[in-house]
Amino acid sequence: MWPRWCRTWPPTCRSDGLGGWLSVCLGRLGEPRDEPGPPDTGRCCVPRTIHDTNGAFDLVVAGADAPVWIVTTVAEGRRAGCLIGFGGQVSIEPRRFLVNLSKRNRTYEVAGEAHYLAVHVLPEESGALAQLFGSETGFELDKFEHCEWHAGPHGLPILAAAAGWFVGEIMERHDFGDHVGMVLDITDARAPHPDISPLRYSAVADLTPGRPA
């Protein structure tokens, strides 16, 4: 996600995942600017040339403006869900999808005892739902009391406002650092309407995470 004071397209600020914002901003991708200014001036600081590999990587990922997802799960009667940006298909045959959850999220704790996850793609007008699952923490709030959902396959919470969703059995877990990846074997799905545009990172730039990654 990117800070609220940097709203150019392509998205040009990248979260460092540690509760702060990486100070790498571009007027347009590939055109660095070095105009100084604190966050509340609407400008960012950036070196004229970026030699740092991590910074360059962040810019590539930011420019892709990937879709965001809401992952929900249930275990021993406990429901949980969160907004994620680290996820993607990793196999065509058989169908496999990798979900990455922050170790600091309640969803990660519940998913550790779960056998299945539900992954939802959101329509681009779903900002309020993204805020609920991205800016609130399940340690303090039952998110499902504030949105419409129904019990789906394996009792998983399925969000009514989702454009589409799929369910997968957790086949493997991999520790990647501050996130744990869960490989899903797809067992059920509902396709979105072909005209739906998904909610992307650039649309959730104002969100403050409920828990730092």
Structure description:
It contains three helices and 13 strands, in the order ββββαββββαβαββββ. With 213 residues, the protein is mainly β. The chain folds into two domains: 14-64, no CATH class; 69-204, Pnp Oxidase, Chain A (Roll), CATH 2.30.110.10. It has a seven-stranded antiparallel sheet. A hairpin with a 5-residue loop joins strand 10 (149-151) and strand 11 (157-159). The termini are close together. The model is unreliable at 1-48 (pLDDT under 50).
Instruction: Provide the structure class.
Output: mainly beta
Can you count the helices? 3
At the fourth CATH level, what is the homologous superfamily of the largest domain? Electron Transport, Fmn-binding Protein, Chain A
Distance from N terminus to C terminus (CA atoms, Å) equals 11 Å
Strand content: 25-35%
Mean residue pLDDT? 81
Helix-strand pattern, N to C?
EEEEHEEEEHEHEEEE
Strand order of the largest sheet: 6-5-9-12-13-8-7
State the CATH topology of the largest domain.
Pnp Oxidase, Chain A
